Automatic annotation (TrEMBL), chain A:
The lineage of its organism: Bacteria, Bacillati, Actinomycetota, Actinomycetes, Kitasatosporales. GO terms for biological process: transmembrane transport. It is found in: Cell membrane. Belongs to the binding-protein-dependent transport system permease family. Residues 114-322 form the ABC transmembrane type-1 domain. Its main location: membrane. One of its GO terms (cellular component) is plasma membrane. It is a multi-pass membrane protein. The keyword Methyltransferase does not apply. The chain crosses the membrane at residues 12-30, 118-141, 153-174, 194-212, 254-274, 299-325. This is ABC transporter permease.
TrEMBL record, chain B:
Pfam families: ABC_tran, oligo_HPY. Residues 11-264 form the ABC transporter domain. Belongs to the ABC transporter superfamily. One of its GO terms (biological process) is peptide transport. It comes from Kitasatospora phosalacinea. CDD domains: ABC_NikE_OppD_transporters (cd03257). It is found in: Cell membrane. Its main location: membrane. PROSITE patterns: ABC_TRANSPORTER_1 (PS00211), ABC_TRANSPORTER_2 (PS50893). This is Dipeptide/oligopeptide/nickel ABC transporter ATP-binding protein. Keywords: ATP-binding, Cell membrane, Membrane, Nucleotide-binding, Transport. GO terms for cellular component: plasma membrane.
Length: 332, 348
């Protein structure tokens, strides 16, 4: 078990290294292909040659790609000093470099942004997990009835309708028309009530999208499970139907749901571009879009690493949980 | 209720029909038999003969597990003076696992993979002993595992089904079925999924336990070898109907129905020296939606033309061929005996 965990953690680090290397490669190649000069981006349009060269030297952009990558990695773990003679800037670990645009450190910026995604995911995931699974289960147990057909039609709509459609409708109706919810995001630390109110619409809209998938999955899985021999055995033992369904069938139904839940949550923490854009939330997804638009490569790199980290970690957690849920899975 | 005059289990004109998109599937279409405590009945037939549906109907498990509506069930199933067909689902549930229990074909899929063997036995015990503490139930589970011959039962009780071998799993299934001392035990193909070496052990175990508990046992199988080991009486089913019924020894010695001859001919025998090859029953099992007219077996029966057309026009009924021995066949008894002694017996 510990050996397994250690191996998986090594794996995580390796995966992140690969992601970092590929992103860094692109980071290095793009300026060459587009003919833009990273040093120029830092300095701005009206810069004299000396200033540009100074920046290039200070940021280490005059070094080879291998050396730059090494300095970047080192910066992540032990921090990094940018210096050019007397002009020295210290970037504390974990250092992801400086934004071209704002010239501020990337790490604190992203740390600030990811709070929004945590807030968004926390509420939405509870909603979609509870409602999605419950809907699917009820649908499966009432298979073929009007209720089943209705919920599955709604679920199909949920899967098919894009976020920016349902989100905008929700905003227009509940935000603007009825005015039930504010359409601004407030930080949790500033005002918990406003934080909650501001997130209700994004939560519900996002949860609707995911819940539809969960409803379909849990319905299909439960129907499969109900046909299993061990369900017949449970009934043959004379167990009450709620025990047969609630205990024996649900235990097996929740396993695949757990898997995609981990993946979805990991993906969501790495930024929800459409949701953030629709509800004007400034999370990692928003940061990704703006940094791509402005070719702010250090930020793109940071966002990518953040997202990769959450997905890889979610993967690991799911695999560990799987062994807890299914005794047949051995972690070796 | 007085139970003395009635057999312990009495099935009367049982019909189980499943509505499907293609039509009504008549899985069981008029079945009657009696079974006393301490006796073993073997129900034999090929796939689709209705033998499994019969057992599920007795257990009340046919109500679930259908995709297009509930099956239509008629007739009577009297268990210890109580009609299970007329009884409410909750009453049948209470009897299930307590008064009647079932062992299934594949012990790997029949046990929940996520719960320990012990937990699954404990659950069955506590479902019918609400007052029993977890500790008592666990003790009972260990006791049952020991009784069915599982070594180190106090340790194995905490194992998961996948940690058991196939034979051990079936033993555990038996322990689970017997945990509440049922008076009726139904074993649906209990050895089909097992290694040949393990099959005999499981059959021995079932026989020993029956002697010990004195319960009535129904063995459902397509394998005449299995019923030869265990059964006191044999019921041969074909196309949802009984075609022959009698004491096991009689069925093996002087079978009356051509289908039974076919089954015997297709059974490998180790106790006979001369046997060139097995003779399969020709043709395919009948459709249960459009059951062949007259005798359902006539399209496959080599002697159908000897009935003078009756086999295609008239449904044969179970008639006494000898004391306690019944067969549903249009062939005259003398003719059947002649065919069996002259043509069939020498090839067996």
């Amino acid at each position: 078990m510990l050996v397994y965990l250690f191996r998986r953690l090594v794996n995580v680090v390796f995966m992140l290294l690969v992601v970092a290397a590929v992103t860094f490669g692109i980071f290095f190649m793009v300026p060459k292909l587009t003919g833009t000069d990273p040093a120029m981006l830092y300095v701005g349009k009206i810069a004299d040659k000396v200033a540009v060269e100074g920046i290039r030297h200070k940021m280490g952009l005059d070094k080879s790609i291998i050396e730059q990558f090494w300095l970047f990695l080192k910066g992540v773990f032990v921090g990094r000093d940018y210096n050019a003679g007397t002009d020295m800037t210290h970037c504390a670990a974990p250092c992801l470099g400086y934004s071209f645009k704002t010239e501020r450190e990337v790490w604190p910026l992203l740390l600030n942004r990811v709070g929004v995604d945590f807030s968004l995911a926390a509420g939405a995931c509870v909603l979609w997990l509870v409602f999605g699974t419950a809907t699917g289960v009820v649908s499966a147990l009432r298979r073929g009835t009007a209720l089943d057909r209705l919920t599955m039609t709604v679920a199909l709509a949920g899967v098919s309708l894009p976020m920016y459609f349902t989100g905008l409708v929700a905003l227009a109706v509940f935000g603007h028309q009825l005015g039930w919810f504010p359409i601004n995001y407030t930080d949790l630390a500033d005002d918990p009530v406003a934080w909650f109110e501001g997130l209700v619409l994004p939560w519900v809209t996002l949860a609707f999208l995911y819940a539809a998938t969960y409803a379909r999955l849990s319905r299909a899985t439960l129907l499969d499970v109900l046909g299993e021999d061990y369900i017949r055995t449970a009934r043959a033992k004379g167990l009450k139907e709620p025990v047969v369904i609630g205990k024996h069938a649900m235990r097996s139904t929740l396993t695949p749901i757990l898997t995609i839940f981990g993946m979805d949550l990991g993906g969501l923490l790495g930024g929800a571009v459409l949701t953030e854009k629709t509800f004007n939330l400034r999370g990692l997804g928003y940061e990704a879009v703006t940094s791509i638009q402005s070719s702010d490569l250090p930020v793109i790199m940071g966002v990518t690493l953040f997202a990769a980290f959450f997905i890889v970690m979610a993967n690991l957690v799911v695999d560990l949980l799987y062994a807890v849920v299914d005794p047949r899975v051995r972690l070796t | 209720m007085s139970n003395t005059d009635k057999p312990f289990l009495s099935v009367r004109d049982l019909k189980v029909h499943f509505p499907t998109d293609d039509g009504l599937v008549k899985s069981v279409n008029g079945l009657s038999f009696d079974l006393e405590r301490g006796r073993t009945l073997g129900i034999v037939g090929e796939s689709g003969s209705g033998k499994s549906v019969t057992s599920l109907s007795i257990m009340g498990l046919h109500r679930t597990g259908t995709k297009r509506g509930a099956p239509r069930i008629s007739g009577e199933i009297w268990l210890d003076g109580e009609d299970l067909v007329a009884a409410g689902p909750d009453r049948v549930r209470k009897l299930r696992g307590q008064k009647m229990a079932m062992i299934f074909q594949d012990p790997l899929t029949a046990m929940h993979p996520y719960y320990t063997v012990g937990a699954q036995i404990v659950e069955g015990y506590r479902a019918h002993h609400p007052g029993a503490s977890k500790k008592e139930a666990r003790k009972r589970a260990v006791e049952m595992l020991d009784r069915v011959g599982i070594p180190q039962p106090d340790k194995r009780v905490d194992n998961y089904p996948h940690e058991f071998s196939g034979g051990m799993r079936q033993r555990a299934m038996i322990a689970m079925a017997l945990v509440n001392d049922p008076s009726l035990l139904i074993a649906d193909e209990p050895t089909t999924a097992l290694d040949v070496t393990v099959q005999a052990q499981i059959l021995d175990l079932i026989r020993d336990l029956q002697k010990e508990f004195g319960s009535a046992v129904i063995i459902i199988t397509h394998d005449l070898g299995v019923v030869a080991e265990l059964a006191d009486d044999i019921l041969v089913m074909y196309g949802g109907k009984p075609v022959e019924r009698g004491p096991a020894a009689t069925i093996f010695e002087s079978p009356e129905h051509p289908y039974t001859w076919g089954l015997l001919g297709s059974m490998p025998r180790l106790d006979r020296e001369l046997q060139d090859r097995l003779i399969p029953v020709k043709g395919t099992p009948p459709s249960l939606i459009n059951v062949p007219s007259g005798c359902a077996f006539h399209p496959r029966c080599p002697y159908a033309e000897l009935t003078g057309g009756r086999s295609t026009s008239e449904v044969p009924v179970l008639a006494e061929a000898a004391p306690r021995h019944h067969a549903a066949c249009h062939l005259p008894i003398a003719e059947r005996h002649r065919i069996f002694t002259e043509e069939i017996a020498p090839r067996l």
